[in-house]
Amino acid sequence: MGFPIRTAFTLLAAVAAVTITTPRLRADAGPKIKKLPFGKLADGTPIQLYVLTNKNGVQAAITNFGARLVSLKVPDKNGKLADVILGYSSVEGYEKDTAYFGAIAGRYANRIAKGRFTLDGVTYKLPINNGVNSLHGGTKGFDKLVWQARELTKSANPAVELTLTSPNGDQGYPGTLHVRVIYTLTDQNALRIQYWATTDKPTVINLTNHAYFNLDGQGNGDILDTVLMINADEYTPTDKTQIPTGEIVSVKGTPFDFLKPTPIGARINENNPQLKIAGGYDHNWVVNRDHKTGLVLAARAYSPKTGRVLTVYTTEPGIQFYSGNFLDGTLVGKGGKAYKYRYGFTLETQHYPDSPNHPNFPSTVLKPGQVYRQTTVFKFSAR
Ligand code: BGC
To answer: Fewer CB within a 10 Å sphere, N or C end of the chain?
Structure first.
């Protein structure tokens, strides 16, 4: 009686062993990096695209123009890949871009009030490019610069390194800044972005990635049904020009409470003064931390339609959730898709906006001898 059962177990074990080892037997399996031409800037500079592929066939494409994430192809609940990043099919689109699609925003992501801050008694003036404020590093921020790119062939996972030297006085900011960013695509379908920077004079710094996501595929409708969780008990409300007032306010009882996963569209049109100012969500949440340093869970987005899940981990104290309120269909991207109202959302891990003018916010000052570091992970799954 026991014999057939044991045989069945042996068979099951054999099947399991085959299932486990099969992926290693595929001839073309394994991580890859491909470098492709990505068009030319108006001045003739050729730009490249680096396509990282992991063992699951997940692909991330990054260009050296603005160190931008151009596309990210991830599976849905049926294993079907779709590109979940808004963007353009060549660099010409990015050179004209006004939405910061996929860019590394710097030197200072988000706004600095009236384009001014004072450091060690000296007041610095920055370009005003957003109403009365300075946004995302100025008129020619890191999103519009050509970075040096290098494929990291010795890395266990496909990875590309981008570096930049921003000279003293660039866009009004003090100090020569050396910046390094590495994008790595892991076999767990996570895109890890690591940042480092050093300076030769005291300065301020706040770097982020400005990717717009649509978990149903870029250009495939709005993001209002996407269910969002933000791991934050508090957020930083703003004045009419979207500059933090300096207060750190509880999300409890407000449309800013995303502790319990909630569709983005559920409360977005409520008559809430903060939602009115921004025309929807465009705010900084204070990420809950159970440990002082290292990666923590910041947010999770889920599309009930395709089952794709994006989980965001970060070392940063804040996250800007922006619901694509300024998209209006005039920007036409990859595959001729028009990016209409709320067709994408961003989850920008960062220090709080306008920190240089708010001593009560975590400091964004970088001094000579210090190393600025930040890590953010965008992990994909499906259910
Ligand atoms: C800002 C938005 C802005 C968007 C694109 C976001 O980080 O908070 O107000 O419209 O970037 O520039």
So the answer is: N
